[in-house]
Structure formats: structure tokens, C-alpha cells
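Can anyone check this?
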Amino acid sequence: MLLIYRYSGVHIWYITILFLLPGIFNTADAQVLLKRRATLMGSVFEITVADTDSVSAGKNIHLVIEEITRIENLISEWRPWTQVSEVNRNAGIQPVTVDRELFDLTQRALRYSHMSDGAFDISIAAMDRIWKFDGTMTEVPDRETIRRSVDRVGYEYIELDSIRSTIYLSRPGMKIGFGSIGKGYAADKGRVLMQSRGVQAGIVNASGDIATWGEQPGNKPWRIGVDHPFKPHKMIRILQLRKGAVATSGSYRQYAEIDGTHYSHIINPKTGYPSTGLISVTVYGPSAEFANALSTSVMVLGKKKGRKLLRRFREYRYILVSDSGRVIKR
């Protein structure tokens, strides 16, 4: 049975709960494709694996869910017991020793900030109470409130000590958060885990941040449809992926409409105001984490500077949609 699932600007076509004859995959021992949904990291995840039988597939999906739960308990800024929450509580007070995994993820996030000239910045989490995109905000925050919030943002104030594996936020009131790359990172880690266990094919779909590997039945690539934000039920392109990843950042689903003006939920870390110029950015290539870092950066940088950044990474391709509806692809 062919099913189509839609997440955060993408559709996925594949066959689910289908028992297959040996040899229909590249590997002769893959016999079943199993899918399961779970709410993780505040979003709907969907994990699909091709495995030898439904029992083995179910166990492997459970392992992916456990891995993503572990990651959430490490990097969530909303759960008070996580290491990220401990780092945030100690902003302006003292460095906090963290697991090497979190240290390395933070170090990569700082590299993304440098490469994008600050368009990507995990310390923008300090602005989480300024703008509301849940339908409750009826007026734009005043300029002084935004200015004060920007004072607590700045990746250059995140200090890392590689020897001690510590993170220190040098300004009081600072916060870090991994909402921009956390789900992509989790999708990548789920894929790595399954490949390490010999699972030949599958998808980890972190509510639109997607990591794929292998092939679906009939030795065909996974098909990922990219929505057109201005044309409901129409897709700009259908991506065909084997080992690949795709991430979309956009302001056409999560936004605020105030006095007839559309305000994106993606905030410029330097100004404190919503990004403008682009309504959607889809990036696809090897890593879901990096694709998401690029898509977020480009939303903030805009079309011209964003394309200049993307040209530096030839393994990644993109689909941009401007707020006028123009589509730009590479």
C-alpha cells in the first residue's frame, strides 16, 4: 500500500508494513519495511526500517526511539535536569562540565555561527519570551524590549574549554538552545545507529528534518516531496534520496500576523527582529544537522547572502522561495 506523509513542508512516499520477497532489496535478507511514529523532542518523529522480519524491525525502531530520548535528555533547554539547562542556570556565574557529546555539538554550532557571520546562533534561546508564535501575540514587542533581549544574545560570549569539557555563558541571562539543529542531529544519530546494526535501509524523519539510507522496495530511492508554500497541494520538486538528508526552514506555517504584517518565527540574532525576504528554504545533502544549520542561516541572511553561503558547500543543494513567490533552485 502506497502512503504519503506530510511534515513541515515535505511529503514522503513509501510502502509501509509490506512483507517482501527476498531479493527485492539490494540485500537478499531484507524482508519487511516497518514504520512507527512517536512524539519526541516536542515533535512527531517517524522511523522506518527495512529489516529481516517485523520483530527485528520493531526492536530496531525501539532502539532509535531510545537514542532520540537520550539525546533529548541531554540537550533540551526545557527540561530542568539536562546539562543544557544547567549551563543556562550558570550563565554569568561559572563554567559547567558537560558530556563530550554536548561539548562537540556546541563546538559545531559555534562553527556554524562563524561561517554564517552570526546568522545562526544557539544563544538566541535567550529571546524565547519576547516573540510569541502561538497565536497569543497581538502587538509587536517594543524596541527597548527587543534591544535588551539582543544584549543577551551572542555566540562570541559562549566560552568552551576543550581540556575540561566545559561550557560557560559569560553574560548573565544568556541561554543556549538546540531547536535549530537538535532534531537534525537526532535524525543523523538514528541513521548512524541503524547502519551500525546492519539495517540496510530506512528513514528517520524528525518532523521534517530527514535522514535516509538505502533504498525502498524495488531498489528505488526514497521520494521526498517539497511543498510550495504559496500553492497548497502543489510540490516544487520531488527529491530522490538514498543516503541523504533534507531540512526545511520556513515562515509559512509558524508565524504571527499583526496589523496585516507577516512576522516569521525565525529571528535574526543580531537585530532581534524576524527574518525577511524568504518564506522557505530547503537544503539537502549528506547531513540533516548541517542541512538545518544552513537552512536556518539562509532564512536570516536572505537570498543574496544566503546563496553566497550555500555556494561554499557543493555537496548541498537548495530550493529557496522568496516572499514574492519566486522559486530559486540549485
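Reply from J.R.: I decoded it. The longest strand covers residues 32-40.
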